[in-house]
Amino acid sequence: MYCILCGKPITGEYLLVSGKGPYCLICVRQRAACDVCGVPVGDGHQILSDGRRICGQCHQTAVYNPTTANAVYEQVRGIITQKLGITLNVPTVLVLVGRDQLSEILRQANHSTDDVTHLLGIYVRHGRKRAIYAQSGLPRLLLMQVIAHEWGH
């Protein structure tokens, strides 16, 4: 068995994360981890403007632009409306943001900002306006999950 990052043979312990790997312990200890899935990142990773690292596999389906994000939002909205019969009384928009922006939105909404490292989205009410803020760069399926979760608020 060989490490999929460095290509060296693995003779002892190794890491598998959600079916990804194997990774030798040297790569696990010495390389930065993907901020989405947690695997050690290789040459194909991306560093986003807010400093998050996204592995090549997560990057393949990551959503970075508002047009694609809105299409995903409409897909989730359609599923929730059709399958569960749930609609929102007040129109709600989706906004992609970086982790630093998400932290600032939390602060302005008087939410705890102690640990936003793993926060992926938030539902915010501003008077009659509603918005779901989600981190940009999330893989499509994870973005769908975040939208559905925040919709429930």
Features:
153 residues; alpha+beta; single chain; three-stranded mixed β-sheet
Q: Give the total of beta strands.
A: 9
Query: Tell me, what's the shape?
Result: elongated
Determine the number of helices (DSSP H or I, runs of at least 4 residues): 5
Measured distance between first and last alpha carbons? 46 Å
Question: Could you estimate the helical fraction of the residues in percent?
Answer: 25-40%
* Strand portion: 15-25%
Following the backbone from N to C, one meets helices and strands in this order, namely EEHEEHEHEHEEEH
Supply the helix-strand structural class: alpha+beta
User: Rounded to an integer, what's the Rg over CA atoms?
Assistant: 18 Å
**What is the mean predicted local confidence, pLDDT?**
89
Give the strand order of the largest sheet, numbering strands 1, 2, ... along the chain: 6-8-7
| Low-pLDDT residue intervals, each spanning 5 or more residues | none
Largest sheet: 3 strands, mixed
Secondary structure layout plus pairing:
Blueprint: E1 14-17, E2 20-24, H1 25-30, E3 46-47, E4 53-54, H2 56-61, E5 62-63, H3 66-84, E6 92-97, H4 99-108, E7 121-126, E8 129-135, E9 138-139, H5 140-151
Parallel strand pairs: 6-8
Antiparallel strand pairs: 1-2, 3-4, 5-9, 7-8
Helix pairs in contact: 3-5
